[in-house]
Amino acid sequence: MESSDLLLVGIEVSVAFAGFAGIIATFQFRDKTRIKRGQVVGLSLIVHLSLVLALLCTLPFLLSIFEVQDAVLWSVCSGLAAIWTSYTQYTVHRNMKGAARRRSTRLFMSMLQGVFVLIVISLILNMLDLVFHREPGPYIAGIIIGLGLVGVMFTRLLMPPLWEVVREQEAKRQAS
Q1: DSSP 8-class letter at 97
Q2: Cα 133 to Cα 118: distance, rounded to the nearest angstrom
């Protein structure tokens, strides 16, 4: 599969995640009077990162319209992706302050930040022609890993309310 095919699939998956997250959030938070900071950060991460990933998947196509080719194309894309990933990492860290009370949540957020750091490092190395040689691999790998993280956050948004309903139903059955 060529890099252009992977980028087109990335656009479709990113937009799908953002759309489904919006639908789930609309129904999930409709009847709640109290929404936790972590839920909002998770939802905003899904929507923000999905749309940014869609933009990053589109970026090589946009630059190729201006006849930016090969090594320069992947260098510019890697640089812009490193900047945007760093910004995303900063906003997640800032917004999660005080929200992660459970140890497992803090561990998950630390792991998420660690993955962001590794992505930024690989993008910078690709941009500077160190280790990677201004090739599409690190850029596309960063997008795929980002989509994987969005999928994990999507699951974390979707599953807890479903398990809550199951537990309530089981408690009602046991009570009767």
Answers
A1: T
A2: 17
pLDDT band at 59 (very low <50, low <70, confident <90, very high): very high
Those residues whose C-beta lies under 8 Å from the C-beta of residue 113, and which sit 6 or more positions away, are 89, 92, 93
Residue with tokens 């992505």: 119
* C-beta atoms surrounding 23 within 10 Å: 9
- Structure token digits, residue 132: 């990677």
* Distance from C-alpha of 48 to C-alpha of 40, rounded to nearest angstrom: 12
In the predicted model, is pLDDT for residue 2 greater than 90? no
Extract the tokens encoding 147. 């989509």
In whole angstroms, give the CA distance from residue 64 to residue 28: 41
